[in-house]
Amino acid sequence: MTRTARSSLALAVIFAAGALCADEIGDAENGAVLFGYCSGCHEVGADAESGIGPHLNGIFGRAAGSIDGFYYSDGLNRMGADGLIWDLRTLDAYIENPRALVSGTRMSFDGWDNAQERADVLAYLRLYSDNPADLPEAEPTARPSEVELPPEVLAIQGDVAYGEYLASDCKTCHQQDGSDAGIPSITRWPVDDFVVAMHAYKRKLRPHPVMQMQAGRLSDEEIAALAAYFKDLD
Amino acid sequence: MTFNRRTFIGTAAVGTAALSAPLLATAQGKPRVVVVGGGAGGATAARYIAKDSEGAIDVTLIEPSRAYYTCFFSNLYIGGFEEMSSLGHTYGKLASEYGINVVHDWAVDVDRDAKTVALAGGGSVPYDRLILSPGIDFVDGSVAGWDQSSQDVMPHAYKGGTQAELLKAQVMAMPEGGTFAMVAPPNPYRCPPGPYERISMVAHLLKEVNPTAKIIVADPKEKFSKMALFQEGWNDHYAGMIDWIGSDFGGGNVEVRPDTMEVVIDGEATKVDAANVIPAMKAGLIVERAGLTEGNWAPVVPATMQSRMDENIHILGDASSQGDMPKSGYSANSQAKVAAMAVRGALTDSRVFPAKFSNTCWSLIDTNDGVKVGATYEATDEKIAKVDGFISETGESDELRKATYEESLGWYAGITSDMFG
Ligand SMILES: Cc1cc2nc3c(=O)[nH]c(=O)nc-3n(C[C@H](O)[C@H](O)[C@H](O)COP(=O)(O)OP(=O)(O)OC[C@H]3O[C@@H](n4cnc5c(N)ncnc54)[C@H](O)[C@@H]3O)c2cc1C
Fold it and tell me: Are B181 and B276 in contact, with CB atoms under 8 Å apart?
């Protein structure tokens, strides 16, 4: 699947969130079957060990990237350091489109656009989270139903000149030449990936406070303008 | 003497090789922008105007130094985390890549009627728009016993370069178990967490080379920026070393005696081995000379950073009084981009968008223990007003603190390339 196609899935979820998604607790039995898609890389249950992917025991309530001895990507480590905690909401977003939540994740898994299947596999994984307090029954429905964006807003053509002005505020941190020491590079991203990442900060799905604040004040047009500008920057 | 463009170029070219190339590009009738001060505000403004106007505006930058040593990260130099040489930046690219006329001289006066800036080396420069970003100067007599002539004995280290080197040398030369004193400044001053990051870095250095040494801070304030974070860090890393005396305990009642290396706090004299005196601050002198100050600072119109007293002059950074933004390099850089857009809009009819400002200040407490505070701002009629903000929390994980420090390294690279190209 191409990068762009993958991220349009994310658009669907992040924007249409609240529709189905993880609002309902899934069917753990069906989830056990579906876990077959994960089990090539992940183990769960008694004696589970990390393999290609980390073991998934106790995943609910755990900080991202926190299994000792597993070699995580820089992206997932960064999210963990920023305070990303796996809960129903963040797991759902990750499984739906790993890269939208964690750019540069090593999990080579395209993501699932079927919300019911995600809910089911998560219901299954919940059985292996030791501490049920991590996930009170009422919690899943507490997922904020995010503002649904009408398609015309999604189709906004970014105003590059406006994007250039707005981008001046980003370049104090993100380097113009795309180098990424300490702060990731944001140049030459596909527009959709960029828009998704910004909305993930704006909706506080991604944890970083600077970026939540930066994205928090941007309108949909402004995010589109920035995406259009950074796309072609070299 | 009347000043026109030709006489100006004549005088300046003598001292400035950088001028020869852009000379050719200086066409008749182009609007002229003059920027005074090649620091966080001025260098950014000059670069953005030259870059975005693509030659339609003639930009001259007046700055006495050939290399700008950033104050930001100068504390890290004192702590041993940075080399002084990596804090120096030159103006070469601004001249060669952006066609800016870089004039290494002091601006000594502004004739607001004639719209010219007079240079110390003689001659003057005409402008259509003038941008002043001269940073700070110190208020005479704000610390009893200290004046500019004391700075070699009791350095302020609050302007870039040699002062920080001097301070570090004095710390290194302290006898075993000796005493370091800081006189902290009253509000408002540049870089609110700066003095406390400095204390952390001096403590870090002393812990390595002179672990029984003591640090006293006399502070005219009751509380300070990121206080809980610094105090937590000082307890964790430098327990028993730092004695902070706030205004409730007489920290504001201070006299210094450079001749005998004494610091008198609330009537009690202490002999010290190194003293860092950071006096009260005001806008860089040229702003006062231009008659644009009210009290110690220059009031500006938030949406454009224009002086409230002269619409042809924009004042950036530390020198301005604008509302909620702290005086920081980040703020000056952010304001410069808003002003650059406004100036281009006024002189070339380019598009003008709503002003957006932001700031983040990182501080290093000890190795891999970074903290930050930041906010976003917008322009209201009355002031630059805070929209949203965040601050690091006490008790954060080691990984987060390390990531925060690494972020600050990324920011340093980002802002300096945003200033100097
Ligand atoms: C110890 C310390 C740590 C700091 N740490 C940080 C930090 O971590 N992050 C942060 O954002 N900020 C930090 N700052 C604050 C930051 O350095 C200043 O707020 C920032 O430099 C202000 O920018 P400016 O353009 O107003 O002035 P400056 O950057 O000081 O630039 C002024 C320039 O104008 C020139 N000039 C002055 N008068 C004239 C004249 N008459 N003619 C021509 N040129 C003139 C000067 O030579 C100078 O180059 C720190 C400051 C200190 C002292």
Answer: yes
Q: Do B390 and A171 touch (CB under 8 A)?
A: no
Could you read off the pLDDT of B288-337 as tens digits, one per residue?
A: 999 999 999 999 999 999 999 999 999 999 999 999 999 999 999 999 99
Predicted pLDDT of residue A130: 65
Architecture of the structural domain at B146-279: 3-Layer(bba) Sandwich (3.50)
Neighbours of B59 (CB within 10 A): 29
Q: Within chain B, how many helices (H) and strands (E) appear? A: 11, 25
* pLDDT band, very low/low/confident/very high, at A156 (cuts 50, 70, 90): confident
CA distance linking residue B133 with residue B305, whole number of Å: 11
What is the predicted pLDDT for the residue at A215? 95
Selected from 3.30.1120.10, 3.50.50.60, 3.40.50.10090, 3.40.190.10, the CATH number assigned to the domain covering B5-137+282-352 reads 3.50.50.60
Same domain for A8 and A121: yes
Distances (CA, A) of B74 to A125, A159, B158, B161: 50, 39, 9, 8
Q: Is the pLDDT of residue B20 over 50?
A: no
| Separation between Cα atoms, residue B354 and residue B345, nearest integer Å | 12
ipTM: 0.83
Percentage of chain B lying above the pLDDT 70 cut: 93
Average pLDDT taken over every residue of chain B: 92
* H/E element, B215: strand B214-218
Judged by phi (left if over 0) then psi (alpha if -120 to 50, else beta), residue A73 lies in beta
State the span(s) of chain B assigned CATH 3.50.50.60: 5-137+282-352, 146-279
Tokens read off for B243: 């004695």
Instruction: Collect all residues with Cβ–Cβ distance below 8 Å to A64 and sequence separation of at least 6.
Output: A76, A79, A80, A84, A85, A86, A90, A102
Mutation to probe ligand 1, out of B34, B60, B65, B71 (largest number of atoms < 8 A from CB): B71
pTM: 0.81
Looking up residue A47, the CATH number of its domain turns out to be: 1.10.760.10
Tell me, yes or no, if A177 comes closer than 8 A to chain B by beta carbon: yes
A98 lies in the same domain as A200: no
Total count of domains within chain A: 2
Q: Which one of B110, B125, B191, B415 would you pick to mutate in the ligand 1 pocket, going by the greatest count of ligand atoms within 8 A of its CB?
A: B191
Do A184 and A78 share a structural domain? no
Kindly state whether residues A13 and A93 are assigned to the same domain.
yes
pLDDT digits (tens, 9 = 90+) for A217-227: 999 999 999 99
Query: Is the CB of A179 less than 8 angstroms away from the CB of B413?
Result: yes
